[in-house]
Amino acid sequence: MAVVNPNKTHLFENDDEDGPISFKRSSASMKSSRPTPSKQEGSSGSAGVPVRTSKPVAPNQQKNGVSASASRLLHVKPPSSSPNHRPSGSGQPNSSAENSSKSNSIDKSKLKRPLVKEENSDDSDDEVPIGLRRKVEEKKLKRVVEKADDNDNTPLAQRLKMGESSKGKPSAKNVVKKSPASTKKNIKKMKRKVKTKKTMKNSQFSKTMKVPPGSGGGQKWTTLEHNGVIFPPPYKPHGVKMLYNGQPVDLTPEQEEVATMFAVMKDTEYATMQTFIDNFFTDWRKILGKNHIIKKFELCDFTPIYEWHLREKEKKKQMTSEEKKALREEKLKQEDKYMWAVVNGVKEKVGNFRVEPPGLFRGRGKHPKMGKLKRRIKPSDITINIGRGAPVPECPIPGESWKEIKHDNTVTWLAFWNDPISQKDFKYVFLAASSSLKGQSDKEKYEKSRKLKDHIQNIRDNYTKDFRSKDETKRQIAVATYLIDKLALRAGNEKDDDEAETVGCCTLKIDNVTCLPPNKIQFDFLGKDSIRYFNTVEVEELVYKAIEGFHRGKPPGYDLFDKLDTTRLNAHLKDLMPGLTAKVFRTYNASITLDDILHKETEDGTLLEKIAVYQRANKEVAIICNHQRSVSKSHESQMTRLNEKIDDLKAQRDELKVDLGKAKKGKPLGNDKDGKPKKNSPPEQIEKKIAAIETKIEKMEMDKKIKEDLKTVALGTSKINYLDPRITVAWCKRHEVPIEKIFNKSLLAKFGWAMDVDPEFRF
DNA sequence: CTACCTACTTAGTAATCCCGCA
DNA sequence: TGCGGGATTACTAAGTAGGTAG
């Protein structure tokens, strides 16, 4: 993207179908065939940047009456209207309406719902049943497709390859059984396998280094002391009675607690989502017990509790600042001992020493488990990791005890417990970002991505070559790598059925990727956090052809890269560079883009101008990485207000112009608003005033534009996770920009390791 | 291999802080 | 001098990826 070109800022506006994504490539830019490297300003333009769009969560939008199947169909060609934006606001219920109006109407349901689900589908529902079925059906699908491939559509030559590479799972079997070509296929398969092995062996890098250099043999620390974790206070019943069927209901504290969790969420979108309600109600009824009068959600009225909550909130707000301060200090005092750990003799901050309080699970997007009760964590759920010699933290809840004490110095966690929502997941307590342990691994991360610079040309040549490979697996790897490199897509691990359906590169579905002749590809899918990625990109001819090929014979909902998963992909990457994985490309592209833009575009100018350059670069990166935020509730009104101010200034300016004309002719200026005659000023003075107002208008217009541009762009994520801080620090040093203008307190602490970088540092 | 387990990074949103301004 | 709103911090969900057992 022409990143820097101010004109193009609105990347978000509607880039639907156009534009090559001129992805900015640093010096090592991709070879020729690559679509317009952004930098050339002239290049067309606005590039299709990933477009931000919808946020998943918005319940409404998902359903909106479109049946799943219908929507899926639509989806094929999403309305090009305004791609960008995410519909619902941050979880605020109301905002959704406003947003959704603009949002492009694609509803998510279509985005994700694979064909399979359709049958039962419908909208709201979706929940569990579908999930359950999905795997099975998907498998079926795969098989069907495979068969199809086997026989017809696919040219023999191609078929041979498909067979050979397949993971050996069902497809291989099928092939053997049914295809006449099977023998050949198998032979080929073997051959290829052998070959691969050989290559791997020979590869200088193939041995994955088990331990990153630097960290001595996997050991992360030698001594570790800390005080464990702090638990949320026990529930304090409020005694406010909710209504059931119009009648007040008695609830035990335990029952009331859960009711309150729900009541309090009345003003979030969650409260309107069927899945959320159902899950909540199911879990709550377990606590109510079989014989409780409360049987139907529809008859529940939580408003009394909600109102109590509002009153409490108000009370809190009304407290004087002294009271608030006292409260804060009290809390601080209590928590102080948990805040710190001593690692190798050095006192370090602990990140999250507070155990997560019970609540209703707030999954993002269409999470099948949203609304489920996240139960209270007890000491007996928690495993503590601590140095051998160190005193084991005393369990803060009398009469209870930790689940287990470990002394594992190959890991960095201080404690963990199993996530009550998903038993298989863990919640860890780690040191804070400012700790040297984290700092070191952060630095290693950037060093690794910097190394990619030395290999990138080779890697690009390599995958470019493989675009025409006869081996479908190779072609898939090549194209996937290309997308990860060029579009900064995430790897795309497989997900379980009990999670929201989102995808990354390796898990892209047929219907997420549309070929638009002659050479554009449109991506439309929900990625991490169910953030929509919507982007149309011009690709090289061979890539286009290859993707068309991957589509052939596969129904929507089927994997585009069916011979690929992140493990395979990363294994391949590791052959090209030690330690290389898909995510390194994101870091690399983000950091190199920043380095590049800063070097090209920083000019001598005011501090403010330099900072503006940085922010533009930052924004560019955020767009590449598709880092989004929801539009603030008040955005609209703020814009209106800005416009009013601008109009007002313009009116003033115009009036002054009239005055100026008169003044030049020596005429009186007339009256002001209050009807009093204005005092005459010399023309020069009026001109000055006009100029001043013009400047002000310009500035406001600029502010307005930036605000609009950034309304859906989150700059923070890339700053925290993707941009090598040394680039920033070095730039600040070279251009005499105080680092505090770019990094806030936490970032300064986090990036302590980068502060002494040489001013000439290049990523 | 694949499936599962484990550890750690990355992500958006909610809550809170804080500052300039009518 | 309250308050609108941006900035920062807190929170925890949701990714990536390595290792390992079967």
Automatic annotation (TrEMBL):
Q: Which superkingdom is the protein from?
A: Eukaryota
Q: Which residues fall in a compositionally biased region of kind Basic and acidic residues? A: 105-119, 134-150
Q: What name appears for this protein in its UniProt entry? A: DNA topoisomerase I
Q: Does the keyword Transferase apply?
A: no
Q: Where is the composition biased (Polar residues)?
A: 59-70, 82-93
Q: Which PANTHER family match?
A: DNA TOPOISOMERASE 1 BETA, DNA TOPOISOMERASE I
CDD domains under this entry? Topo_IB_C (cd00659), Topoisomer_IB_N_LdtopoI_like (cd03489)
Please name the source species: Panicum virgatum
- Locate the compositionally biased regions of type Low complexity: 22-38, 94-104
Instruction: Relate the protein's function as given in its record.
Output: Releases the supercoiling and torsional tension of DNA introduced during the DNA replication and transcription by transiently cleaving and rejoining one strand of the DNA duplex. Introduces a single-strand break via transesterification at the specific target site 5'-[CT]CCTTp site in duplex DNA. The scissile phosphodiester is attacked by the catalytic tyrosine of the enzyme, resulting in the formation of a DNA-(3'-phosphotyrosyl)-enzyme intermediate and the expulsion of a 5'-OH DNA strand. The free DNA strand then undergoes passage around the unbroken strand thus removing DNA supercoils.
Q: Keywords, A to Z?
A: Coiled coil, DNA-binding, Isomerase, Nucleus, Phosphoprotein, Topoisomerase
Where do the segments described as Disordered lie? 1-217, 660-687
